[in-house]
Amino acid sequence: MAKNNTAKDPDKAPFGKLLAWQTRPIALGSITIIIAYFTNYCTDTLGMAPALVGTLLMASKIVDGITDLLAGYVVDNTKTKLGKGRPYEFCVVLAWACTVLLFSASPAWSLAVKCVWIFVMYTLVFSIFSTFLNAGESPYIIRAFGSRVAVTQVSSLGGIVITIGCTVVSITFPILMGQLATSAKGWSTLMLIYAVPLSLIGMLRFIFVKEVYTDQDAVSDRVSLKDMFTMLRSNKYTWCMAGVNGATQFVAGLGATSYYFIWIVGDIAKLSFLQMFTIVSLLVMLTFPAIISRKSANFLIGVGAAIGVVGYSLNFFAGANIPILVVSSLLAGIAVMPGSYLRTVLIMDIAKYNQWKGMPTMESTAAALANFFGKIFTALGSFVLGILLSAGGYDGSQAVQPESALTMIRLLYSFIPAAAMLLMVLCTVVYSSLTRQMPQIEKELAEREANR
Description:
This is MFS transporter. The protein contains 22 helices and two strands.
């Protein structure tokens, strides 16, 4: 990684720049938090069957088979005065605009119109705008901060800032949802309350963080479709990293939390109380840089996932017991943090492995595959939620749910996400062989550079 004249020490991330970097993830992460309530909005406000909603969201992800890899190809070949990944930051405003529209359907519309509206808006949010934001993320951070040390600082310590920002949304949204989301108009008002400020916050990264480093290997080389497919065929570690992201997003896509607190706990407002304890999980993130210096990001992700298996399993036995739910929530929060915030560190290793094998680095393509898996598994989570709720006899129009539906909600909030965490553990076990190879890979790449 070479420095432009304006770049400083690549191992030091200036505090102001570190803070500015987190603004767009807060804005986009808030959409992910809010979208977890979308199935509830469709079933209880629009009167749609949960299985139909799950099928629509799953169908939307078919588009991602094209857009994710297309976005990776486009970003890998982007060369502008603004940089490689930075030009795509404007998509955060468009993503929020479509999210507002997604939650603005009318119950009076016909079922066909509702289905088309949901499919189109959901596809724009996640298959187009979020796709290009995520595809540009890895090349942007690598070229903005320059080294694995700085990227780890930004991803872990900066992740605390993201978590705090998103926790504010997690805490306030259920409260305002209980007050405003009693009608279709109330849902639209609720969305605007979050969309306007978060769209503005999301653009702060573009304004204050520039790309100041260039990758010499990729300055002149154009990434071809053949290069992309060669990497997908020969680099198994890319698939492991994608699996980690997919497992994390499957849990997010399940969106069973609101159902659990409405029907098992009996009060959606208590979810806000639970979200307050997320702050405690932030203390764990302070240890990330030290652990990675001794072990690796992959090791930390694997340990976190193993903790998540325990945490999510506890939910099945919690019922309405808030202390047990707090403990399980803390363990689950610890589980997803490494996989959520340290993915770029894995991508840097994958890029070096590609370079070592004589291919372009292709950070965006690697990230695109992870994003593709993430979206497919998010949709799969929504699909599983809808299918299992329907199988359990759930009916959002009823004041009382059958015991079979309540049992299904408990499973969706416990053992099913625990199984996803177990998949993540298996992915990190396979990926660990690359971690062991990295010192030799970096040594050989340095020798090649010195001999040029």
